[in-house]
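quick q for whoever's on today - can somebody do inverse folding on this one?? i tried earlier but teh output was garbage lol. tokens:
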């Protein structure tokens, strides 16, 4: 991607979702950024090891030894630090604001859950 394409307005980089169990999920949405990240992942890790991991992930979690094979494949990948995405200062600011909003929403949700009356067994 050249610098002129990068400076153009693009679809939002990330989406942030609050889940009912309290965790916050961050998804990389902008498709060029997803492809850039995948290129970096493939460049940082041995292709054979990635294919092994992909094969194990396609298995049923109920398959015998699945989690042992998965753990071994993950260990075989080794260390790496792939680039998640490059963003402008404005995009970084939007992400920071969205994350703050999501955390505040999660905190409010926890507080509300604690304030609901609940039934207690009578002794």
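ok took a stab at it. sequence:
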């Amino acid at each position: 991607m050249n610098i002129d394409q990068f400076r153009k307005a693009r679809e939002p980089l990330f989406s942030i979702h609050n889940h009912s169990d309290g965790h916050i999920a961050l998804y990389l949405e902008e498709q060029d950024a997803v492809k850039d990240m995948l290129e970096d992942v493939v460049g940082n890790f041995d292709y054979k090891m990635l294919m092994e991991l992909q094969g194990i992930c396609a298995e049923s979690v109920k398959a015998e030894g699945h989690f042992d094979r998965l753990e071994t494949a993950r260990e075989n990948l080794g260390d790496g630090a792939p680039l998640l995405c490059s963003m402008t200062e404005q995009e970084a600011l939007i992400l920071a604001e969205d994350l703050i909003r999501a955390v505040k929403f999660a905190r409010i949700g926890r507080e509300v859950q604690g304030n609901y009356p609940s039934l207690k067994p009578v002794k």
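fwiw The helical segments are 3-7, 31-44, 47-58, 66-77, 89-115. also The first helix runs from residue 3 to 7. so keep that in mind when u check it
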